[in-house]
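<tokenise_the_fold>
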Amino acid sequence: MSAEPRTDPVPSTAEPHDRSGIGRRLRVGFITHLDQHDDPAGILRDNVALIRALEDLGYDSAWIATRHFHSGWAGLPSPFAFLGAVAQATSRIHLGTAVLPLLVDDPIRDAEEVAVLDLLSGGRLQLGLGKGVPSDAYHVFERWAGQREAEFDAKVDQLLWGLGAPAIPDSRSSLWPRAQELLGRIYIGTSNRDTIRRAARTGVGLVLERFGNTPFENSPEGRQSLLRRQADSLLDYRSEFRRTWGQTRSPYAVVSRSVWPGTAEEGAAVNARWYDYAAQFSRAVPGRSPQDALLADNIVWGEPAELAAHLLADPAVTLSDELLLGIHPAHVSIEETVARARILVEEVVPLVTEGWLAARGDLEARVDGWELEAVTR
């Protein structure tokens, strides 16, 4: 039996706490990298079917990884056509980009594209923006200047202006269609602390992915350091947001985690498959066991109760408003992905939600403690 569909609107950072609905329950999404096999046309069709199945299972949202040149193994360089097809194949599930690599785009054209997407979806778009996975091939883009931080900030500002602008300066024209409502559903995907604080001051949401920033964080020994840093980033975001906006707007944090629900025997087979696949990309560290290879990529596995305990032990999960779950390793069939996604939403998510609600009661105290600690640092 599928989960009960959820029909509440997408929470908006533009609304104050008493109207936003943010934080009253844990929203649960699913993320796909469109990397299940090597047939590009088949991957697109299969993932439309996947998101349709996720909607039937009761997931709040479906997010897609968007990356150029197959970097990070993700298979979709542009979300616009794909999410347009998904919007027509679904009716309720919210659709997110994780993330749109803004650095090589014209942000005003992107504003037009996402405005159309939001209309096609009936206001279900959640627009995650980011700098993209670094690549030595970005120079082929006409708009790539190579100044990641400053250029990203400028393009975010241009996109936000484009979504809300009533008229174009020095022109009798206006941007069309208008997309002011989408301004409350913008998210910045980053691990850069300055960018995180700027997102808070701008009043938009934050997306954190599962990967670390350094070789140590991307090792089994450094996984706890990664989780602690991400939790600190979320506290920093919430603190900066509160200082800037008080109760007039609501912060919204999204965290992505890769999981594998299954028995120890299934997990052993999955571990070996992931290790072999990672070796093709020189990501299998010599001497590292398949289990350690999964931990190095911040992937947790286990039976439902064990998996829920893993997630609740992750401090970033209880500091977030939306949890994105992904089935990895890659090269898992759509049918198997849907079967595992069902286990997650029906058996794991209720346990995580119970723990999340219990931890949520002291959220403001945790932010207070972070601000006090920041003063003494």
Remarks:
- The chain has a mean pLDDT of 90.
- The longest strand covers residues 253-261.
- Residues 66 and 254 are 16 Å apart (CA to CA).
